[in-house]
């Protein structure tokens, strides 16, 4: 009955999970395999394990998030941890308290695991240097969102049976997307062919050198794709006008049934959420039979449990 | 002319013997002596070996060490008034003396902004009373550094400003820049400008390119500098104004300056020591001490900058000394302040280029001492007989490792913490008076 006894040995020896960058393929596969085993825990009546019993997990979110924060909260609770959520608006740092000050304050309360989201790239790594506990990056600026890439990989592998050799098209606001960066690194690591599709104003400079093929035309970019991964058009992050209007964006880059027909007949659709229906994705596709969007949410809990458990194995006094 | 604040101080005559004397103003690199008396150079070079020594002189055997004109640093942010916790004239002066910098040109980006003759006067007096080295203030080009209204160039010059600049800021309004260049010409006042289109630079925090994309940081394209530099040079030619680009950072800018000079334009430019010795990859895992403006560029650009100094296309090397503290630097990269301290390390970092064979000492001191003084119309920056005795003795060989905590600046934001250097300043004289001397522990 105790699921933890069935967990594969994953050989994950890092103190923090700050990004996919720096992980080996074996480590990534180890986490995905471990997550596979966690799925069952969430599907049974008794959803509680005890590997984190007595541990304190603080979810420190400098940027509002409903789904990622609740996913980490549920993952921590199902492993037996005491979970506290701290939502810190941008205002608090403007009051004069720096990120470092806040990290030191929290550190003094002796948490075991900090789950951190911050609007600035590199902020989570900076914080990790200053605290004594394990840190999980739940998204830092436009840099990385490693658990999202892991849950996407788990979702893909469960549906397609593999990742190696698949063609994955990531579409939308690549420029501002940490999800895109983490996925590009992870999918390359596991041998997928990665494409990005976006208007040129939303493609970062030198993106080809990260191991992707870049397209500005959905028809060309989707041809032969096994997976179509849509990104949220993060309008609130844009300083200027990167695209002229929602209707023009949807016309050329919004995923509807017609555009999806340009991909492989068995292509599947993903979205990290939250979706803007009618902006980057049509409801008919989001709710259609080829959508994996709800599976992604379920896999999110499993992956976060696996990550928490992997890090807990290396906590002091473990 | 400007107040030369150190002149009041007396110093005993000194004779530096057995030295390698470098004086770019006379293209001199030769064994010889340097004789200092009454705050001025009496003789320097081989001929000084045959010159009579002043009575009561201190005789120094340099054992082959370099004696060169003290450095004239054209871009220094001090912090006084308004940010004395980061740097004062006193602490900047000590850092400068230890780094072989005998003249610092201060930027007007203070609180309040130095955009009024009375403030220039305050700066000059305050610096005279507290700094070990000469301080030459630059005043604001536009009121409040806002980029809209010209300041009183004539009154500022009379008060002692050696030039006008908007410091870290860039004047976006082309018409304002044109009129400023036109009006400044009447006073012979150089305009030092930071060429960086603020709109194109936008929210960028490092060089645009693959590295920025991987780090998820917004980039600043080189074109923000290139376009503004092109604009400025065309305006300088249109108006006949004296234009100096405070810092360039990329190969394309170098070509623009090279072409303009070949075509006879009266323009000059500088580069920071950081852009000669570091590149964007040094940022590594979001190290904010490497967050600079202009941003560190590619290795190809760095190599172009070194070549530009070697062939004289780039006139001056500056430290762009910008003291920042924990309160402004210990933040996520995008939120941290730009800038690095550099007064104390500029020369030793530049010696790396000499040891690497990329520059000779004449080219180096031309850019560090002689050209900046010429551009600003100062009589320092050379060892010619009669010139002020602002000079340094440099051991170019001894290796050492920098511990940033030992820097004399009040702020320790050095990108060279833990760096290995070869060579150091062993003595600094300002107006014939020794303001720094290094005593080796051995």
Give a description of the structure:
Helix content of chain A is 38%, strand content 14%. By secondary structure, chain A is of the alpha/beta class. Chain A has a five-stranded parallel sheet with strand order 7-6-5-8-9. In chain A, strands 2-1-3-4 form a four-stranded parallel sheet. In chain A, β5, α7 and β6 form a beta-alpha-beta unit. In chain A, α1 (25-43) crosses α6 and α6 packs across α12. The model of chain A is unreliable at 1-8 (pLDDT under 50). Chain B has 13 helices and 19 strands. In chain B, α3 links the parallel β9 (139-140) and β10. The radius of gyration of chain B is 21 Å and the shape is globular. Residues 1-9 of chain B have low confidence and may be disordered. Chain B has helices spanning 89-98, 117-130, 153-159, 174-187, 198-201, 210-215, 223-239, 251-262, 273-277, 299-310, 326-329, 346-355, 361-376, and strands at 14-23, 28-37, 40-45, 58-61, 66-69, 71-76, 101-106, 134-137, 139-140, 164-165, 191-193, 206-207, 219-220, 243-245, 267-272, 316-318, 391-401, 420-430, 433-437.
Give the structural class of chain A: alpha/beta
- Determine the fraction of residues in helical runs of chain B and give it as a percent range: 25-40%
Largest sheet of chain A: 5 strands, parallel
- CATH architectural category of the largest domain in chain B: Alpha-Beta Barrel
Parts with pLDDT < 50 across at least 5 consecutive residues of chain A: 1-8
Q: Considering residues with a beta carbon less than 8 A from a beta carbon on another chain, report the largest interface and each chain's count.
A: A-B, 26 and 24 residues
Q: How would a textbook summarize the main sheet of chain B?
A: 8 strands, mixed
Rg of chain B: 21 Å
Total helices of chain A: the number is 12
- The low-confidence runs of chain B, each spanning 5 or more residues with pLDDT under 50, are 1-9
**Shape field of chain B:** globular
Compute the separation of the termini of chain B in Å.
45 Å
Q: For the residues shown, what is the average pLDDT of chain A?
A: 91
Mean pLDDT of chain B: 95
Which bin fits the share of residues in helices of chain A? Answer: 25-40%
Q: Report the C-alpha radius of gyration of chain A, rounded.
A: 19 Å
Oligomeric state: heterodimer
Quick one: how many beta strands of chain A? 9
Fraction in beta strands of chain B: 15-25%
Major sheet: arrangement of strands of chain A = 7-6-5-8-9
Q: Summarize the helix and strand pattern of chain A as letters.
A: HEHEHHEHEHEHEEHEHHEHH
């Amino acid at each position: 009955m105790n699921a933890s006894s069935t967990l594969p040995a994953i050989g994950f020896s890092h103190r923090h999970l700050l990004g996919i960058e720096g992980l080996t393929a074996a480590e990534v596969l180890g986490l995905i395999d471990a997550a596979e085993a966690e799925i069952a825990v969430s599907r049974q009546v008794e959803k509680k394990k005890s590997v984190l019993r007595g541990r304190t997990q603080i979810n420190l979110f400098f940027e509002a998030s409903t789904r990622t924060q609740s996913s980490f909260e549920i993952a921590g609770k199902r492993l037996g941890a005491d979970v506290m959520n701290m939502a810190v608006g941008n205002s608090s740092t403007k009051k004069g308290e720096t990120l470092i000050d806040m990290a030191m304050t929290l550190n003094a309360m002796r948490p075991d695991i900090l789950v951190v989201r911050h609007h600035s790239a590199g902020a989570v790594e900076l914080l990790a240097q200053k605290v004594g506990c394990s840190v999980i990056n739940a998204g830092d600026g436009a840099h990385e969102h490693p658990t999202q890439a892991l849950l996407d990989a788990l979702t893909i592998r469960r549906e397609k049976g593999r990742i190696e050799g698949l063609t994955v098209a990531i579409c939308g606001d690549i420029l501002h997307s940490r999800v895109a960066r983490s996925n590009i690194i992870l999918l390359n690591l596991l041998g997928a062919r990665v494409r990005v599709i976006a208007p040129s104003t939303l493609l970062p400079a030198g993106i080809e050198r990260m191991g992707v093929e870049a397209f500005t035309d959905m028809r060309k970019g989707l041809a032969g794709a096994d997976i179509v991964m849509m990104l949220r058009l993060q309008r609130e992050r844009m300083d200027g006008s990167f695209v002229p209007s929602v209707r023009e964006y949807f016309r050329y880059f919004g995923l509807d049934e017609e555009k999806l027909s340009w991909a492989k007949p068995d292509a599947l659709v993903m979205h990290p959420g939250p979706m803007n229906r009618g902006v980057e994705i049509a409801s008919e596709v989001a709710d259609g039979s080829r959508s994996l969007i709800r599976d992604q949410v379920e896999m999110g809990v499993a992956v976060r449990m696996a990550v928490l458990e992997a890090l807990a194995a290396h906590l002091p006094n473990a | 002319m400007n107040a030369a604040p150190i002149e009041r101080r007396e110093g005993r005559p000194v004779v530096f013997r057995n030295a390698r004397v470098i004086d770019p103003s006379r293209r001199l690199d030769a064994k010889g002596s340097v004789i200092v008396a009454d705050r001025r150079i009496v003789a320097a070079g081989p001929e000084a070996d045959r010159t009579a020594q002043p009575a009561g002189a201190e005789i120094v055997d340099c054992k082959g060490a370099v004696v060169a004109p003290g450095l004239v640093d054209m871009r220094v942010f001090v912090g006084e008034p308004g940010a004395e916790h980061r740097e004062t004239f006193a602490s900047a002066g000590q850092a400068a003396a230890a780094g072989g910098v005998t003249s610092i040109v201060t930027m007007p980006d203070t609180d309040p902004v130095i955009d009024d003759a009375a403030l220039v006067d305050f700066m000059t007096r305050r610096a005279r009373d507290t700094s070990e080295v000469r301080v030459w203030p630059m005043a604001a080009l536009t009121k409040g550094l806002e980029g809209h209204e010209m300041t009183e160039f004539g009154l500022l010059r009379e008060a002692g400003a050696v030039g006008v600049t908007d410091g870290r800021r860039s004047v976006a309004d082309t018409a304002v820049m044109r009129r400023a260049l036109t009006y400044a010409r009447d006073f012979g006042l150089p305009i030092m400008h930071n060429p960086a289109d603020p709109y194109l630079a936008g929210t960028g925090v490092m060089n645009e390119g693959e590295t920025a994309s991987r780090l998820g940081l917004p980039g600043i394209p080189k074109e923000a500098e290139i376009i503004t530099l092109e604009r400025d040079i065309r305006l300088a030619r249109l108006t006949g104004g004296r234009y100096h680009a405070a810092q360039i950072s990329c190969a394309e800018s170098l070509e623009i300056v090279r072409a303009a000079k070949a075509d006879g334009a009266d323009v000059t430019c500088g580069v920071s020591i950081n852009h000669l010795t570091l590149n964007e990859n040094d940022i590594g895992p979001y190290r904010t001490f490497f967050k600079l403006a202009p941003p560190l560029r590619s290795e190809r650009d760095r190599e172009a900058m070194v070549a530009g100094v070697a062939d004289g296309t780039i006139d001056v090397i500056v430290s762009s000394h910008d003291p920042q503290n924990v309160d402004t630097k210990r933040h996520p990269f995008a939120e941290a302040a730009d800038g690095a301290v550099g007064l104390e390390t500029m020369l030793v970092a530049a010696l790396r280029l000499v040891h690497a064979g990329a520059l000779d000492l004449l080219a180096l001191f031309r850019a560090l001492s002689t050209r900046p003084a010429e551009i600003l119309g100062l009589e320092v920056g050379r060892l010619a007989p009669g010139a002020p005795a602002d000079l340094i003795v440099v051991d170019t060989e001894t290796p050492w490792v920098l511990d940033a905590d030992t820097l004399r600046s009040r702020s320790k934001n050095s990108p060279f913490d833990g760096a290995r250097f070869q060579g150091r300043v062993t003595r600094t004289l300002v107006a014939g008076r020794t303001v720094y001397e290094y005593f080796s522990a051995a």
